[in-house]
Amino acid sequence: MAEIEIRNLGIDYRKPNSDEVFAAVDDISLSIAAGEFVSIVGSSGCGKSTLLLSVAGLVKIARGTITIGGRPVSGPGPDRAVVFQDASLLPWRTVLGNVRFGLEMQRWTGGDLTERAMSMIKLVGLARFADYHPHQLSGGMRQRVNIARALAVDPQVLLMDEPFGALDAQTREIMGGELLRIWEGDKKTALFVTHDIDEAIFLSDKVVVMGRNPGHIKEVIAIDLPRPRTQEILDTPQFTEYRRRLRAHLAADMAGMHFMEEAA
Ligand SMILES: Nc1ncnc2c1ncn2[C@@H]1O[C@H](COP(=O)(O)OP(=O)(O)OP(=O)(O)O)[C@@H](O)[C@H]1O
Ligand SMILES: [Mg+2]
Question: Where is the ABC transporter domain (predicted)?
Fold first, then answer.
């Protein structure tokens, strides 16, 4: 049975300074199995974040349903954790304090909070930095803290919206590898939004390609590459073929955008 089942989902937003509503995404159906890693790609504004937020329970569902483990999503819950691109840490708390904060908010009862937080900090490779404050860390390290905070509460589902978007290409590659290592350790169901095609292929079991106006699924590509994966895989013919397919999809979408602007 699928862990996350999205059926004919539609999300509406109100246009700024107006009562008019429009569909940001419409008629989205997607099944994600327990423990699967799924990435979402698509041009800017096609509704990737909206889809992720709807699974997080942070936007109102206008049409259709989302169920997680058979239970309908009607708001946020401890079974899901979200990591945002520009996720902010509490500046006055240390790394340890920030990871503890996630546990405090969820009223964690699974044992000693500090011990739990420290084990997550070790997992993301920051044990030596537990006493540091956010401003003393690099962007990549701060994003590791965010991931540790999300993982600490032991969610079934990990939702990530361009978590490495603000990082340079090399740090990003390292973080992707780290994320896979953690995910392979205790396979959470993961939904991951990215603009980076290589990142999507490298990480995922499935890549969902979205189109725009309103946001919809164009194709779901199963990534049939062996795990565990290392950077060498980026140069294999299979990987190159997935890259070609995804690029073609996204290029077609961009061409459509220019056409629309000209027609407007
Ligand atoms: N809170 C909101 N109120 C009104 N419109 C919104 C709101 N959030 C997003 N939108 C609109 O909904 C559409 C989808 O936005 P969304 O943020 O989901 O796209 P995205 O694919 O994540 O884009 P990006 O790649 O730039 O992050 C866009 O047209 C956007 O302007
Ligand atoms: Mg977005």
Answer: 6-237
Four-residue CA torsion sign, 250, 255, 257, 258: positive
45 C-alpha to ligand 1 centroid (Å): 5
**Looking at 89-213, which runs of residues are DSSP E strands?**
157-161, 189-193, 206-211
- Residue 166, exposed/middle/buried by CB under 10 A (0-12, 13-18, 19+)? middle
- DSSP characters for 111-146? S-HHHHHHHHHHHTT-GGGTT--GGGS-HHHHHHHH
% pLDDT > 90, the chain: 75
Nearest to 4 by CA among 73, 58, 64: 73
From residue 247, give the alpha-carbon distance in Å to each of 39, 41, 196, 260. Answer: 15, 10, 10, 20
Distance, CA of 8 to CA of 25 (rounded, Å): 10
- Is there an atom of ligand 1 within 6 Å of 25 CB? no
Q: What is the pLDDT of residue 263?
A: 47
Q: Which residues contact 139 (CB under 8 A, 6 or more apart)?
A: 166, 167, 171
Q: Percent helix, strand and coil across the chain, each rounded to 5?
A: 40, 25, 35
Closest-approaching ligand to the CA atom of 45: 1
* C-beta 50 within 6 A of ligand 1: yes
Q: Round the CA-based radius of gyration of the chain to a whole number and report it.
A: 19
State the average pLDDT over residues 205-232: 95
Residues 178-212: tens digit of each pLDDT:
899 889 888 899 999 999 999 999 999 999 999 99
Is 246's pLDDT higher than 50?
A: yes
Residue 189 phi/psi, 5° resolution?
A: -75, 125
